[in-house]
Amino acid sequence: ELHGSVTIIVLGASGDLAKKKTFPALFGLFRNGFLPGNTRIIGYARTKMDHDQFIDRVTHFIKSKGYEKQLEEFKSILTYLPGQYDDDESFINLDKTIHQSEEERKIEVGKRHRVFYMALPPSVFIPVAKGLKNNTYAKEGLNRIVVEKPFGEDSESSAHLAKELGACFTEEETFRIDHYLGKEMVKNVMMVRFANIFFSQIWNRSNIDNVQITFKEPFGTEGRGGYFDEFGIIRDVMQNHLLQVLSLIAMERPISTDAEAIRDEKVKVLKCIPPISINDALLGQYIAANGKPSYLDDETIKNKDSLTPTFAALVLFIQNERWEGVPFVLKAGKALNEAKVEVRIQFRNVAGSLYKNAARNELVMRVQPDEAVYIKFNNKQPGLSYQTIQTELDLTYHSRYSDLAIPDAYESLILDVLRNDHSNFVRDDELDAAWKIFTPLLHKIDAHHQDIKISNYEYGSRGPAELVDFMKKYGYDRSNANYSWPVQSVA
Ligand code: BG6
User: Fold this and answer.
1) What are the tens digits of pLDDT across the range 199-215?
2) Residue with CA at minimum distance from ligand 1 atom 7
3) 438 CA distance to ligand 1 centroid (A)?
4) Residue 395 and residue 389: Cα distance in Å, rounded?
């Protein structure tokens, strides 16, 4: 545990990520008593700002209604220090500042822990890691470094980054954030699978027909085009967030809940997935509709002929005894008709069924918005009829749990760092295995290979028109699904 005597240094403290995610999450922890009073947070960035400007900036997105007093206390543990990202002098200065604060707090030698949180653009990851290692590395306590994606753009660039960062910080010292692993429903997957006997028994190719992991956002790139156009939807959310969810759904039972036991299983299952074939991909880019702009209308996109996908449906197959032949469809898109992230597991038809019109069972884990786990379930139509109707066994969190308070993903993950728990972070070999699955396809897309087709879809639509047939091709069956979610229960 690093708790109790730590200095958290947020590098890139003037940037968007720090302002929108890191500092609000730190405040959330502080408010809930998870950052003891002798914790100090030092913001570090190139921008020249005085203390008040810094405080204004990093508390801008903090929702403090009802917590005004705690916010004032929180402000008192924050300091700002401007400095360069590629200059030893600046990092020596940072070291002095931290040291001074450790002395003031009378932290015992040996417990002067430092957490370096890199809320930085990838172009400076390596110089900053070197600068920290050479000049700011704690000698009287533990060091931890927190890094955020993008971890490279393909296998090769990721390996290069891993090598350079690995030369500065050990794997034990490194926490690679994938914020999806901090989401409540994603943290629930292992529990659902391994603490319920009826799921552990049917979790395989004999019973499951197909699995869909879906990410939908109702807005476009809007101002983030500079970053997005180089990366595209596959690198932005699929190679990381959706693949993490897939590995939790598909991995074997770990021997324990220890971080390494879990990550061993994730790596194993990823290694059973061959690279995605272009024949198993449907790609799209949004066009203007309903008064909303097209992707290419975004001013931050420089290349007006860009073929970067903003939508993709990709099918992965897992070559092991449990999953052979079961399509895992990852779908993700910007500028779609709704905001939704969910896992949908569709079971096979009941063999030799007496009830020919029974629809398939599905298990849905809704990650956001509005966390829920529900099963589509066949039931006799109550009354004189013998009709099967599909209904739901529904665990919607907000109706089941009173006083529901789900922490932000970043809050949960930063607490994990302080507890030195790596379970919800990406290990080096895991990252490598993940890139191997995506790199060949990404290279084809980047090179505008002749087999690559980018279909247009309207802003606010469900995605490219081809999607329905694409899903059918991989077995998704909605026939007999005489089902609609009840708007209101009938008294
Ligand atoms: C980020 C992507 O990693 O995840 C964004 O870069 C995306 O493009 C975001 O919008 C989604 O996160 P969340 O938590 O809002 O689902």
Assistant:
1) 988 999 999 999 999 99
2) 237
3) 19
4) 19
